[in-house]
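Methods — Computational structure assignment.
A single polypeptide chain was analysed. Its primary sequence is given first, followed by the predicted tertiary structure written as structure tokens.
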Amino acid sequence: MKLFVGVSLILLATANSYGWGYKKNGNEPPSIGKYEEIISPYDVIYIGDTSTKDVYLTFDTGYETGNTSTLLDVLIEENVPATFFVTGHFMRKHPELIKRMYDEGHIVGNHTWSHPDLTSITSKEVELELSKIENKYFEITNSKMFKFVRPPRGTFSPKSLKTLTDLGYVTVLWSLAHVDWHQNSNRGWEYAYNSVMDNIHNGAVILMHSVSEDNTLALERIIEDLKTKEFKFKPLTNLITDLE
């Protein structure tokens, strides 16, 4: 199993709690160093097969800023699958977008009901955070969720990873991301575009935040230019065999 942290975050440990981060390596897979050993006992994905040009597009979708419909429009036009990690707030406010994600063949992943630090709550509380998302998803779609989870803020510990694995979840981190979660600090679509293209690598699990207007404006060009470079967009379900 594997793991990755995000952007310029530094993997800092506090009482065996870590924040996901990695050392960028241009268009080669980033380095996670000793954290490979920390995550390896658990069901964790951060990257796919680096011998192929398959990549995996994921979004963290905690709340809505008017971008999600546009992102979905681009994805359906480009015939690209994605995974949206959603919170309880988003599900309550926008069930129609959850239904659209489902109807258009995307994976809806679990980003927890209230976005807590999973290392600071009990295993029972973790289970409740996840089950509330599962139940709301079933209410909206009449279907069960795939058990993919992205820990809020990429924070994890051996205990939290064990809890998630014991609950049947695959923890999904990432190998490519940029600072895009501050709604009011847009840097322009070129920033989002270059952040992806300058760091794309085989097997990349790409993290983007749907609140970002930069991402929304850049997505179509990112997809088309990656296709030109012969990258193929695949669903996260293709990576399940990597954990067997």
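Note: The helical segments are 35-39, 68-78, 88-93, 95-103, 123-141, 158-166, 189-197, 213-228.
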